[in-house]
Amino acid sequence: MADTAECDRCMYYEYDEEYECYVCSVYMDEDEMARFMQRKNKKCPYFRQGDEYQIVKKQI
Fold first, then answer.
1. Gyration radius from the chain CA atoms
2. Which domain holds residue 54?
3. Cβ(7)–Cβ(24) under 8 Å?
4. Number of domain units in the chain
5. Can you give the pLDDT at residue 53?
6. How many helices (H) and strands (E) does the chain have?
7. Across-strand partners of 45?
8. Residue 8 contacts residue 47 (beta carbons within 8 Å)
9. Can you give the pTM of this predicted structure?
10. pLDDT score of 21
């Protein structure tokens, strides 16, 4: 699975107030999720470096 340190820097890693924890907000259908969970590579194919200014704009 993805390195959690990588997730901390990803723009898709967002706080979910309902669950009170951070979650990945990348939309994956059932097949994509199965491939993601079975992958051998530790690198996340959906990782995008979070830009703090861009993230703040998205939250406003």
1. 12
2. 4-59
3. yes
4. 1
5. 62
6. 3, 2
7. none
8. no
9. 0.63
10. 93
